[in-house]
Design brief:
Number of strands: 7
CATH architecture: 3-Layer(aba) Sandwich
CATH class: Alpha Beta
Strand order of the largest sheet: 3-2-1-4-5-6-7
Order of helices and strands: EHEHEHEHEHHEHHHE
Shape: globular
Bound molecules: nicotinamide-adenine-dinucleotide
CATH topology: Rossmann fold
CATH superfamily: NAD(P)-binding Rossmann-like Domain
Largest sheet: 7 strands, parallel
Strand content: 5-15%
Structural class: alpha/beta
Length: 254
């Protein structure tokens, strides 16, 4: 499917990987709805690319349904390209100091990263299924964001890899389910990228992280994530799997 001339909706589009994806898809000719909980970030990106900003919490079913309605109303067509980048990265040991448990962190992480991604994917697929098919029966593409932590979860991070592992695992059954309606589902598992999520780290910690990245030995640039999203949209044979985008990094235990 071509990016040019289609409508895209990007969650987490107000920052980092989502913002880069929204910018890139717009530069390739898509009309883009920039969805974010943080409306200021979404508005800044939307203004820059001639798109529309939509505020919603991805984990809120009614809000996401309304957000799709708003995007369709403002852009004239339902999105055939939906990229989920909204996510949170929280760390906590399962059993912390003095026996402190971290069920709250687990619950919040799963709620945003996993339930939010599932929620957006379900609304996206339902609307795509109602659209006319394009060439070769294709109706749309859903791209979800996992993380290399899906396979290389580090100490103190059980919740985050659990949420991202589930995103990777549901890719195939979702692609199988939506095959009859011509909707593809893919996931990208980024390594370590240069986004606000990483910018908060102290310099020595960041240096230690990049030293572990074989080549190129630096953080990934958000536009490199966006390039892969574009290729997934345009390559009709990519379906039902998760691609690591990581400069060959394998995260150490801690
Ligand atoms: P970021 O913090 O720069 O951007 C995330 C955006 O998601 C923010 O604008 C935030 O407001 C939005 N958001 C958070 N919770 C939301 C909610 N409930 N509803 C709607 N919007 C919400 O982060 P990023 O680095 O661009 O990460 C994007 C995605 O990539 C995340 O899913 C993250 O887990 C994943 N990822 C990032 C890296 C990295 O190195 N940056 C590595 C692996 C995976």
């Amino acid at each position: 499917m071509q990016v040019d001339g289609n409508v895209a909706l990007v969650t987490g589009g107000g920052s980092g990987l989502g913002a880069a994806t929204a910018r890139h898809l717009a530069a390739q000719g898509a009309k883009v709805a920039v969805l974010d909980f943080n409306i200021e970030g979404a508005q800044t990106v939307a203004k820059e690319i001639g798109g529309v900003a939509v505020q919603a919490d991805v984990s809120d079913e009614a809000a996401i349904s309304a957000a799709f309605d708003e995007a369709v109303e403002k852009l004239g067509k339902a999105p055939r390209i939906v990229v989920s980048c909204a996510g949170v990265g929280m760390a906590a040991r399962i059993v912390g100091r003095e026996g402190k448990l971290s069920f709250d962190v687990f619950e919040k992480t799963l709620k945003v990263n996993l339930f939010g991604t599932y929620n957006v994917m379900s609304h996206a697929a339902r609307r795509m299924a109602e659209m006319e098919p394009l060439n070769h029966g294709e109706r749309g593409v859903v791209i979800n964001t996992a993380s290399v932590a899906w396979q290389d979860g580090q100490l103190g991070q059980a919740a985050y890899p659990a949420s991202k592992g589930a995103i990777a695992s549901m890719c195939l059954p979702a692609a199988r389910e939506f095959a009859q309606t011509g909707i593809r589902v893919m996931a990208i598992a980024p390594g370590l990228f240069h986004t606000p999520m990483m910018e908060g780290l102290p310099e020595d910690v960041a240096a230690k992280i990049t030293a572990n990245i074989p080549f190129p030995s630096r953080l990934g640039e958000p536009h490199e994530f966006a390039l892969l999203a574009e290729q997934i949209v345009e390559n009709p044979f990519l379906n039902g799997t998760t691609i690591r985008l990581d400069g060959a990094v394998r995260l150490p235990p801690r």
